[in-house]
Design brief:
about 375 residues, Fumarate Reductase Iron-sulfur Protein, Chain B, domain 2, about 45% helix, four-stranded parallel beta sheet, alpha/beta, Rossmann fold, 8 strands, 3 domains
Length: about 375
């Protein structure tokens, strides 16, 4: 992609250089990232100067800039296109390069072999989709391999089994959805992953998918949009099961809970009510709200490839954890693997291990079912 194509694709000539994008960027204060400046250099000056390395890769693709742009532009998509040029030139950090190579070789960005993808469910009643199932549970890379996030999958499986949902997984055949690959700018690899996944979905006649990762949800729903797929984020599916009476929390959980809206679930897809419905269905829970919630939620800094790029400075997740503690919450509820990991790390770095616990909504619900 050349500069002229980037200008046309992103409607850069419509940019009025108001600076709202940079002013609303959650990481602009901790880095020198100035998306308005990048857009001006490309559209007005016809040049692309890559500034300090951390700058371009500090974008989390949270989409706040797009939500607030008065011309309805998507500056974060423009930055992804710029990353594509950088990727093609080979000017990329070793951690990004290694993650992309691992996706191509192993189907995941974590450098783990395919055979380890199903270790989380060895002792569970989970069948392969080929054994006959109506719904695919696409577990995702981080949930499959990270030992902490694996408990989210186990909790979700417990909920689905209790509700007698006929679901299956793809096991070792499951591939990366390509969300972070796309956002890191490796669009060729993303197209390859999408084609391979579509072949797999067609092979097993998969038409309904549940995911517990908002990034996978967004990708399957919006970037695989030519497909006839019904995609459910687990918050939506669990809320539906609760509404239909297929799941009814049996135990009380006398805790003060505050919910953090993930960017890819809230800002990107306007899913705000369902996670709250899941939490509020639990007896004894007092649900609090952050002062900045829903479409104003503060990014955790996990998206856009940031799980593989460390940007110096105060972490937004640390700010979020401190706000949760100050609000009096005992549990910080999330609905995204990246949020779970960044928030848990922030609990440790802020010294709040004794004050607050981070849990996915599926984990919360599973606690009350038996």
């Amino acid at each position: 992609m050349n500069l002229h194509e980037i200008i046309q694709k992103n409607s850069l000539l419509e940019c009025i250089q108001c600076g709202t994008c940079t002013g609303s960027c959650p990481v602009a204060k901790k880095t020198s990232l100035n998306v308005r400046k990048y857009m001006r250099e490309v559209s007005v000056l016809g040049r692309l100067a890559i500034h300090p390395p951390n700058e371009l890769w500090s974008c989390t693709t949270c989409s706040t800039c797009g939500i607030r742009c008065p011309r309805q532009l998507k500056p974060y998509e423009f930055l992804i296109d710029v990353r594509s040029i950088v990727i093609e030139s080979g000017e990329v950090s070793p951690t990004i390069r290694d993650a992309l190579e691992s996706v191509y070789m192993n189907g995941n960005p974590w450098g783990r072999i395919r055979g380890k993808r199903v270790e989380w469910c060895r002792d569970l009643n989970v069948k392969h989709f080929s054994q006959g199932a109506n719904i695919l549970y696409h577990v995702g890379c981080t949930t499959s391999y990270d030992t902490r996030v694996q408990n989210v999958a186990r909790s979700l499986v417990a909920c689905l089994n209790l509700a007698n949902i006929d679901f299956g997984i793809l096991g070792g055949e499951e591939n990366c959805c390509g969300s972070e690959v796309y956002c890191m700018g490796e669009k060729g690899l993303f197209e390859y992953l999408m084609e391979e996944n579509i072949k797999l979905f067609d092979k097993y006649e998969i038409r309904q998918i549940i995911v517990n990762c908002p990034h996978g949800f967004d990708t399957f729903k919006n970037r695989y949009k030519q497909r006839d797929l019904e995609v459910w984020h687990h918050s939506q599916f669990l809320a539906k099961l609760i509404d239909n009476g297929k799941i009814s929390p049996a135990k009380s959980l006398n805790k003060v809970v505050i919910y953090h809206d993930p960017c890819y679930l809230g800002k990107r897809n306007n899913i705000f009510e369902e996670p709250r419905k899941v939490i509020e269905s639990i007896n004894g829970v007092k649900l609090l709200e952050f002062s900045r919630s829903r479409s104003r939620s503060v990014c955790c800094e996990g998206g856009g490839g940031r799980m593989w790029v460390d940007v110096p400075g105060p972490r937004l997740a640390e700010i979020r954890v401190k706000e949760a503690v100050e609000a009096g919450a005992e549990i910080l509820a999330v609905a995204c693997p990246f949020c779970l990991l960044t928030m848990e790390d922030a609990v440790k770095t802020t010294g709040n291990e004794e004050k607050i616990r981070v849990m996915d909504i599926a984990e919360l619900l599973a606690l009350t079912l038996t």
